[in-house]
Automatic annotation (TrEMBL):
The lineage of its organism: Eukaryota, Metazoa, Chordata, Craniata, Vertebrata. Keywords: Membrane, Transmembrane, Transmembrane helix. It is found in: Membrane. It comes from the Eukaryota. This is Armadillo-like helical domain-containing protein.
Length: 696
């Protein structure tokens, strides 16, 4: 028995000599696809049976068989039965307008099978040929206009929530049938016949958002990425000007819930791991198993929802306010308050938000109750995915998290919120297990402005990823985010009470790592660019620190750290001087670092002799920190520094052209994953048909 026959819905064998019977719907599919040897084309199956199409949509769709049948049709056969495929597509669209709900369900599922089956068979075929095969090129514009209007009507109407969910599944199926969505020519019709308003309506309505919000947000994120660099994408234009607060809040709620669910799953796994036998064994043997233990905590990342967050933050300045929308921090139940739609379940970690929470984005707050917001949830998510960047998906997630933070750090309103001393939060970031420290959650995290959590996240990444497979791109982004935050603090003279010494120590250790691994790293990376960014951060503190460091003591401590770790800066200077005085590809890059080190070297050369003299006069072999600080404070007046231009300037983020290749591959990966999750399986069909049979 062939593979196709196995999928043909065989019913039973009446005797060993008789062929098994087929479902009637399968026989009807065979009529559509059957090609007579004597005929150049196939007659409309409704010619001999006027009720053919009515009967077809009253019967349960055999998705597997229909898709397989489409995939098995040869090139010449396609030409002969094209009229019948066109007719099937046309009647599917017509059936969407039927009052009989079962017909609508079966038409939606048949359309999904048509889109998937035709594309699967013709992966190398041009988009225009696929359009011709499905609809007929001369009628495609009208067919797709009718389809999109009927889907829009179903999504915006007062009908069944199950049908709305099925409409979204069909649209996700249509968008993701090609690996590269920009090569999906059918989407041109989705651009012309926009469903943007329907998506917004779902997000702005509490009930609809709870049941369909996730699919709606992912669909919007994918549509925004269709040929975004090649032509004017109406979804980009419309998303950039949305200013309706309930809609933006709704989008934020969906993203918040998906990230919260991810964080909850990770926390559950972490607690399970820490309380188990493996944890005991690890503590007995030592830290040699920490890496393996951490791998067990891995939870599948959700790049689709992260992409949606990025597009909202990047394209719509009004969405920045949503990041700051406060609400009580609570464990959101994984089951919604209203019945779930009877369509296939959403992917792991994407359960709908609590309807009560979404209806009250600003609930009355108990003064003793910790509050949260989308930005806090995002920072916690980032602290998890940025721990392990060896896996491609987690690397992509980490990169996208840093790109989102870059956009936030450049936004004036976001910066104002981040630095608002009247809006303090306790943000419990996740920390990577390392041999020299215990992975323990600090129960007494102080309540601070959110910028402190952003800086903590950057410091944590810097400290934990100095490894052989060095993630240069992520390090550059981290240092640039810190720089942008410092520029805002300098501009607005914000004296942030932060443990700056942890940042300085992390940056100095990073320079130390670059020096120790110069040969290995230079084979792959321009380490001088990163070194220049790090040195210029110190120059920012040296030149403008008196305007944004919290106290004069902080400024003294900066000089203390530079002098204490002077050997690192001395070694860096020797290295860049050596490279810049020789001919080679890094000559110019190294020369820039040499120039940037002028003030750091001036500080070291000025204070070191003073400290040695103080020790000699007072007969002290090793000075305490306080004694060194006393020398520093006493000798500022005679220190000469050079004013360096451009320290508080930075290049603003631009997606095109630098990030275009990254987003192209990211969207391809998301498209493949969404395609797998859009499952219209037999169980879901049974539930749907049972629901509408009862209604009918």
């Amino acid at each position: 028995m062939s593979q196709l026959e196995k999928k043909a819905g065989l019913l039973r064998r009446t005797s060993s000599s008789k062929k098994p019977l087929k479902e009637k719907v399968v026989l009807m599919y065979d009529e559509i696809f059957a090609v007579s040897i004597t005929m150049k084309s196939k007659e409309d199956p409704a010619k001999n049976n006027p009720r053919f199409w009515d009967e077809l949509f009253l019967m349960k769709v055999n998705l597997e068989y229909l898709e397989s049948k489409l995939e098995s049709v040869d090139g010449e056969e396609v030409q002969r039965i094209q009229d019948n495929i066109n007719s099937l597509f046309h009647h599917c669209v017509q059936a969407l307008g039927e009052e009989h709900q079962i017909k609508v369900v079966n038409a939606l599922q048949t359309l999904c099978a048509l889109f998937r089956g035709v594309h699967q068979k013709n992966k190398s075929t041009s988009g225009f040929d696929i359009i011709n095969m499905l609809m007929g090129f001369d009628k495609a514009e009208q067919r797709m206009k009718d389809l999109m209007e009927r889907l829009d009507s179903l999504l915006c109407g007062d009908g069944s929530e199950s049908l709305k969910s099925l409409c979204l599944k069909l649209l996700l199926c249509l968008v993701t049938v090609t690996d590269n969505i920009s090569q999906n020519t059918i989407l041109e019709y989705v651009m012309i016949n926009s469903i943007f308003e329907a998506i917004l309506q779902i997000l702005s309505d509490v009930s609809s958002r709870g049941q369909h919000g996730y699919d709606a947000v992912v669909l919007l994120a994918l549509l925004v990425n269709y040929r975004k660099y090649e032509s004017v994408n109406p979804y980009i234009v419309k998303l950039s000007i949305v200013d309706d607060e309930p809609t933006l809040d709704g989008m934020g709620m969906v993203v918040h819930q998906a990230l919260t669910e991810y964080n909850r799953q990770y926390k559950d796994k972490e607690e399970e791991h820490q309380g188990g036998f493996f944890s005991t064994l690890t503590s007995m043997v030592g830290s040699m198993f920490i890496a393996d233990a951490d791998e067990k905590l891995s939870v599948q990342t959700n790049e689709a929802i992260l992409l949606a967050l990025y597009e909202a933050v990047h394209l719509n300045r009004n969405f920045i306010t949503v990041l700051a929308q406060s609400h009580p921090e609570m464990d959101i139940p994984t089951t919604p308050a209203t019945p779930t739609p009877t369509t296939p379940t959403t992917p792991l970690g994407t359960t709908p938000p609590s309807l009560d929470m979404m209806n009250n984005p600003e609930l009355p707050l108990d003064p003793n109750l910790q509050t949260s917001n989308l930005l806090i949830t995002f920072l916690k998510y980032a602290s998890i995915v940025m721990q392990d960047t060896k896996d491609e998906h987690r690397l992509n997630s980490a990169r996208l998290c840093l790109i989102i933070l870059t956009c936030i750090a450049e936004d004036q309103y976001a910066d104002a919120f981040l630095h608002d001393d009247n809006m303090n939060f306790r943000v419990n970031l996740h920390r990577m297990p390392m041999r020299h420290r215990k992975k323990a959650v600090d129960k007494n995290i102080p309540s601070r402005p959110l910028v402190c959590a952003v800086l903590d996240l950057m410091v944590e990444f810097i400290v934990t990823h100095m490894m052989k497979d060095f993630p240069m791109d992520l390090y550059l982004r981290c240092v640039q985010i810190i720089h942008k935050l410092l520029c805002y603090q300098k501009k607005c003279r914000i004296r942030l009470h932060y443990t700056w010494r942890e940042l300085w120590s992390a940056l100095i250790n990073l320079l130390k790592f670059l020096l120790s691994n110069e040969t290995t790293l230079l084979a792959k990376h321009n380490i001088f660019h990163l070194a220049l960014l790090v040195v210029n951060l110190f120059n920012m503190f040296i030149t403008y620190g008196d305007t944004f460091l919290p106290t004069s003591n902080s400024y003294d401590e900066l000089y203390y750290e530079i002098v204490r770790m002077h050997q690192v800066f001395d070694n860096l200077y020797c290295m860049v001087l050596r490279v810049s005085t020789n001919t080679g590809q890094w000559k110019e890059a190294a020369s820039k670092v040499t120039h940037a080190l002028i003030n750091v070297r001036a500080i070291v050369n000025h204070f070191n002799p003073k400290i040695e003299s103080y020790a000699a006069v007072n007969h002290i072999s090793q000075l305490s920190e306080e004694q060194v600080l006393e020398v520093v404070r006493s000798n500022y007046d005679t220190l000469t520094l050079k004013l360096q231009d451009g320290l508080d300037q930075f290049e603003r983020y631009s997606e095109q052209p630098k990030e275009a290749a990254f987003f192209k591959e990211l969207v391809r990966s998301i498209s493949l994953n969404v395609r797998k999750n859009v499952s219209l399986n037999t169980l879901s069909q049974d539930i749907l048909l049972k629901e509408f049979s009862t209604i009918s």
